[in-house]
Here is the input.
Amino acid sequence: MLWCAKRFRFCTFKWQLYHLNMPKLITTETLVIHTNQGDRQIQLCFGDITKLPLSEKAVLLISAFAGNYCPTRTSVLRALKFNLDLNVRYLSKRKAQDLRKHFNCWMSRPLDNHLPYRLFWVQEKV
Here is the structure.
């Protein structure tokens, strides 16, 4: 589904980095994919994804246990809820695409303009 974004970020959220209050994301790997619509990127990043600049407007790929969007103390779900007031459980009830039956994932509807993400892609662990 890289057709919908110039940059597709897969970010790990380590509790150690959360407590250090890293000011930005650190990109450790980039995979460039050539398409008919131009080059697209998948980036592996470390740091606090809630600190992504508004200018980025990335598609955020996160993982969660199937049907469980509880914001635990060290999870990206908690950081999204407390830092950006984004409730993934709420978004899960209003999916744009539900591909859980075949691919264990779903995509949110487009998000508000004041957020640094266009939408969420949630991969569920079964």
